[in-house]
Design goal:
Blueprint lengths: L12 H13 L12 E6 L5 H12 L3 E6 L7 E2 L12 E2 H10 L3 E5 L7 H5 L2 H9 L4 E3 L7 H14 L6 E6 L9 H10 L5 E5 L8 H4 L8 H5 L4 E5 L21 H4 L6 E3 L12 H4 L6 H20 L2
Parallel strand pairs: 1-2, 1-5, 3-4, 5-6, 7-8, 7-9, 9-10
Helix pairs in contact: 1-6, 1-12, 2-12, 3-5, 6-7, 6-12
The structure holds phosphoric acid mono(formamide)ester.
Amino acid sequence: MQHFTSVYDLPNLEEAVKTAREIKLDPYCYKHLGKNKTMILIFFDASLRTRLSTQKAAMNLGMDTMVLNVNQDGWRLETEMGVVMDGDKVEHLREAIPVIGRYCDIIGVRAFARFESKEDDYSEKILNQFVQYGGVPIVSMEAATRHPLQSFADHMTIEEYKTKARPKVVLSWAPHPRALPQAVPNSFVEWMRQTDYDLVVTHPQGYELDPKFMGDLKVEYDQDKALAGADFVYAKNWSSYLEYGEILSKDRNWTITADKMALTDNAKFMHCLPVRRNMIVTDEVLDGPSSIVIDEAENRIYSAQAVLKMILER
Ligand code: CP
């Protein structure tokens, strides 16, 4: 595998999940692979889990790691082509990316949707410049439209907890005070559609995701109906794709509560974190026995490690 920017980069999804689960049982078993190799992690946006779990994954494989918080630790970077750089941006990505590539063997990059232009965000303007000019493998640590490392950990976690061959997995929109990107739900839907799970998506009118990710999957607009008989409830907020970046609802009737979870078949509660308590999900559910969010976050290490292993072995 050369780059990892979506589920489609994996040579074999089933094998990848199997590898991640094997690594979890023996995290240092591939420590020789990363000897004398360096991974640089570039953050245009904040992170807790992705930063630490990807670093841990690289270290478990014997790699050295370096982290750069762009715009805080480094020069402010220009991302637009053809501009006159007479403002506060000191360096262009066009030079910065190949320079970073000369200092390492793998680059991880996090660059969220900017919400300035739907076209720019959905063409993955920043991530694709890294792929084009990096000269080394690129791992997306959440881009404008996808968060594949998260979806991989989500898939791994469902595999660990499922009690049925074909579990019902419900992705439910939930309210949030700020406009969030569609990267996590896009990626989750795209990834789950590669499995044989019974995937149901529920959200208020106006929150339809890009059809590119939904394919022929139909939305169930009645959240209660969607939750009926669910084995996994994956809650997430996102802003509107159609009215790009807008918040159309903060309706707390969509918050995942114990009453909502009672509609399910004793479902496990999932969220990528960070999560807004009592907006997305109540304390009772998040702190209760059905919540598997901490295991889900732990699996970020092993899924990232499986990705890095495949890149190191290419
Ligand atoms: N889930 C996730 O990506 O968490 P961070 O934003 O903290 O990295």
